[in-house]
Specification:
It contains 33 helices and 14 strands. By secondary structure, the protein is an alpha/beta fold. The strands form 3 sheets. The chain has a 7-stranded mixed beta sheet with strand order 4-7-11-12-3-13-14, with helices on both faces. It has a 4-stranded antiparallel beta sheet with strand order 2-1-5-6, covered by helices on one side. α25 links the parallel β11 and β12.
């Protein structure tokens, strides 16, 4: 059977019709597709078989294919017998209207926006009229490439708005249908045949690669294999993976660690093979690391300048206290004690020598202890009194001269007393006594220095507590405390008896200089680092060190979760190995190959044609085949001279709009569908030349299918109208307006400034006929409003009437002069101008606030009727004359 089908798939010569060529091409490609599938996984072969014989895969199909993918069941591969005729008819879908819009922007919910079933329907609305609300409904319900963030919002002024929704009426191959549209829900798939173009679509066409609209049957099979089968099986397998991943605690899913630390790298690379012992080791911090962690937290969290000042004070405090301890420790070292012993011995020897000399010299004196310390103090006091007060001009002691006296008892000096004073002074100045005094001074100086280094007992706890707050090393603090106490004991012994033997002094600890320097050097480094620039390498190193320590501390908290995750990842990796067959890369490659044969060339040719029709061929752009994903081909707009450049960055906004419109229309032309096309403000950013070209192109499309155009540009409306007249296309108008608090009110007529002047005059006449009753009933307030409104309408209509008389040659939205109509302008006379200017002036004077406030009567209906008749007659007369000279 397969051989028979193969023999039927023959290649038809290129000269045959395009449709026959495409059909035969598809048949050949289908045969190749069956051969290609033989090398695919069993479940993909089975999926292709099912897709070839049915429209899509249902849940039961996916369940069965999943069993095949897991190897639990065997699949059935596709054969040529499973291929059906690829020729398929495409439905024609036509929009009839939108009604019952609820909670869509500020649209009124009782309106119906209808569309003509053929030709061109123009929906005009000013900004804020609600026109865009209806367009957004179509963009969501039909086929549009609007970005995801282009949402349909409810009425923001409504207290409790519901979900935006509306009802759409449409025809499918002439059969009436209706669909309920609700935001974020799938509408009837038939509506996806209708394509919508707007400004957001334009940007996507220019800056992104898009799906092609036309997809031959072989590509449909591959698209569904990729989009449905691959993605569905992938989803089922991923569900099992996610079930395990959902067991992952939040601490692992969103780890509170930096990605560039050792912990962060370990967590980011966590898998089933992660070394658990390494994790255990990584989360243990030493005492030094804990100390560094706290210091870094403090340093980097605060103001660097304030932290530097604090660290400097901290360093100074440590150095000051250490200096005190070093001072007392150094003052009572064994060397210093030995030195003091020497000074004490020297003093003792010289004191004994002086004492012996004094005893020999004064042994016959009547009083004892001459030469003793107390005596010497008395003697020096007598010397000071004599030299400063009693005998300031004489050397002490004064024993000669006029009435010499003892400076202590003031008795006259006898020869014996004078001799005694002389002997005493000689003793004091004797070398032996001077040496004793000198030795005593040296000894006392050392003892004084020793006492100066002593630390009061009450200060010891304060010193240790201050160091504890900054150093924190308790063993070091106890050593320093022992040094202070041991040194104080030595000070006490030395000051009590400088001659105390060395072996009687308590032992003293060696000063821990290295440990103390470690702290001061650390502070110095921190100060230098903090004083450096914020982004310096030193500061970065500190920040990185802090992150590393913090992350290790965090790891210690979540260690059990991490170890459990290692086991969990092992299970997940096993499941993910099964997922590899759901990778659609080879499906994508095959679809790209097919799209190049069946779609791309036709799409490129059509794009070039559209570029020419829109008069932007000078830009030299082309449509290129892009990547294919899940079996769906993509294309993009590129510059011929530089395909890699971004078109959106090179071309102007107006040029981009024309190119995007060309891409959109080219894509539509590749389909066999004649479904409706919707354009929402297609000429934004375009100049008048391009707007006219776009108008002509859209009207040309309206010959083949229903075309709907939303616009707020009155000039574009006239261009569309002119193009419809020129090409013989039926045109219908709708107008959307805003009321008080609501928008989206729909009208069957075009806007007033787009209506024929004759229709406007007729409307003014009807209004006068309907509202003159206000004047008849004496309702002056309402009649005042009527007069004001009709006055404004008459003035505007006079201006448009003048424009109409000149339109055979030039009109306000045109960009060229029609010289053929020049003869029709020559029928104008001076009287026409006078009549127009006088009537225009009277309209301006119909109502003046000054006269009304002064009590002047309002114009009556007859006066207004006269002005309407004048305008109508003026316009009719000129038209009669122009018709008489209309060019053939």
């Amino acid at each position: 059977m397969e051989a028979n089908i193969t023999s039927q798939l023959k290649i038809v010569p290129y000269e045959e019709t395009k449709d026959q060529e495409q059909k035969n091409d598809e048949a050949v490609v289908l045969a190749e597709l069956v051969e290609w599938a033989a090398d695919r996984p069993a479940w993909q072969q089975d999926a292709l078989r099912r897709l070839a014989t049915q429209n899509d895969l249902d849940e039961e199909d996916i369940d069965e294919l999943l069993q095949v993918a897991k190897g639990i069941e065997e699949g059935r591969p596709i054969t040529l017998n499973d291929i059906k005729d690829p020729a398929a008819m495409t439905d024609t879908v036509i929009l009839k209207g939108i009604k019952n819009a609820q909670d869509v922007n500020a649209l009124a919910d009782d309106q119906v926006l209808s569309f003509c079933k053929s030709g061109l329907t123009i929906i005009y609305g000013d900004n804020g009229s609600g026109k865009s609300g209806y367009a957004r409904i179509l963009k969501k319900a039909c086929r549009s490439r609007s970005p995801k963030h282009d949402e349909v919002l409810p009425n923001v002024y409504k207290q409790n708005p519901g979900i935006p929704r509306a009802e759409l009426d449409y025809l499918v191959n002439g059969n009436a249908c209706s669909a309920q549209w609700q935001h974020h829900e799938v509408t009837n798939p038939a509506l996806s045949a209708i394509s919508v173009f707007d400004s957001a679509t334009a940007n996507i066409h220019i800056n992104e690669a898009n799906d092609v609209a036309y997809m031959p049957f072989p590509m449909q099979l591959l698209s569904k294999l990729g989009n449905n089968a691959c993605s569905s099986l992938k989803g089922r397998l991923n569900d099992e993976v996610k079930a395990l991943e959902n067991e992952t605690p939040a601490t692992i899913k969103n780890p509170k660690c930096s990605s560039n630390t050792e912990v962060g790298k370990t967590i980011s690379a966590l898998n089933g093979s992660t070394d658990k012992d390494a994790v255990e080791l990584l989360c243990v911090l030493s005492e030094d690391e804990l100390t560094s962690l706290e210091q870094l937290k403090t340093d980097l969290a605060a103001d660097p300048e304030k932290t530097v000042n604090r660290l400097r004070r901290q360093k100074s405090m440590i150095e000051a206290n250490v200096f005190l301890i070093q001072g007392i420790r150094g003052a009572v070292s064994n060397e210093k004690i030995e030195n003091l012993h020497q000074l004490q011995n020297d003093y003792a020897v010289k004191r004994d020598a002086a004492t012996a000399a004094a005893q020999d010299l004064f042994k016959k004196e009547p009083l004892p202890d001459i030469g003793s310390e107390i005596w010497k103090e008395l003697w020096e006091a007598a010397r000071e009194y004599s030299e400063q007060s009693a005998y300031p001009d004489n050397a002490f002691p004064v024993t000669e001269g006029n009435d010499p006296r003892c400076v202590l008892c003031h008795q006259e000096l006898s020869d014996e007393a004078a001799g005694r004073l002389t002997r005493f002074e000689g003793f004091v100045k004797d070398d032996t006594k001077a040496k004793e005094s000198e030795a005593k001074v040296k000894r006392d100086h050392v003892i004084s220095e020793l006492r100066a280094t002593d630390i009061p007992a009450r200060n010891i706890p304060h010193i240790i507590d201050a160091l504890r707050a900054e150093v924190g090393d308790e063993d070091l603090l106890q050593t320093l405390r022992k040094i202070i106490i041991q040194a104080k004991l030595r000070v006490r012994l030395l000051t009590d008896d400088p001659s105390t033997d060395l072996d009687k002094f308590p032992q003293i600890e060696t000063f821990p200089a290295a440990e103390v320097n470690r702290f001061t050097q650390s502070l110095t480094q921190r100060i230098v680092a903090l004083e450096s620039e914020k982004d310096s390498d030193q500061r970065k190193r500190l920040a990185q060190e802090l992150r590393g320590l913090q992350d290790r501390e965090w790891l210690g908290i979540v260690k059990e979760d991490v170890l459990a995750e290692v086991d969990r990842r092992g299970k997940i990796e096993h499941l993910k190995a099964v997922l590899k067959d759901t990778n659609p890369s080879q499906i994508t490659a095959k679809s790209t190959e097919i799209s190049e044969r069946l779609v791309t060339n036709a799409l490129r040719d059509k794009f070039a044609s559209e570029i020419d029709k829109l008069k932007v061929s000078k830009l030299r752009v082309e449509l290129q085949q892009g990547k294919t994903s899940y079996g769906v081909p993509h294309f993009k707009v590129s510059l011929i001279a530089n395909p890699d450049a971004s078109v959106g960055m090179v071309l102007s906004e107006g040029e981009q709009r024309c190119i995007a419109l060309a891409a959109f229309l080219a894509e539509q032309a590749t389909t066999q569908s004649r479904a409706a096309l919707v354009f929402d403000d297609p000429v934004s950013s375009l100049d008048h030349n391009h707007r006219e070209a776009v108008a002509e192109r859209l009207v040309g499309e309206a010959k083949e299918r229903q075309v709907i155009v939303f616009t707020h540009h009155i000039g574009f409306l006239f261009w569309l109208k002119e193009a419809c007249t020129a090409q013989g296309v039926q045109v219908s108008y709708r107008c959307v307006s805003r009321g008080s608090g609501k928008a989206g009110f729909c009208h069957q007529n075009p806007p007033a400034n787009a209506q024929p002047v004759e229709d406007v005059i007729e409307g003014i006449q009807k209004r006068l006929d309907n509202e003159k009753i206000h004047h008849e009933r004496g309702n002056q307030e309402q009649w005042h409003l009527t007069v004001r409104s009709i006055k404004d309408q008459l003035r505007d209509t006079w201006e448009r009437s003048v424009e109409k008389t000149l339109s055979p040659v030039v009109w306000r939205f045109g960009n060229k002069i029609n010289t053929k109509g020049l003869a029709q302008v020559t029928v104008l006379k001076m009287e026409d101008s006078v009549t127009m200017r006088e009537a225009y002036g009277r309209c301006s004077r119909l109502l003046h606030s000054e006269s009304f406030e002064a009590g002047s009567p309002l114009p009556d209906p007859d006066q207004i009727q006269t002005e309407i008749d004048t305008l109508k007659n003026w316009l009719d007369e000129i038209k009669r004359r122009q018709d008489g000279v209309r060019p053939k």
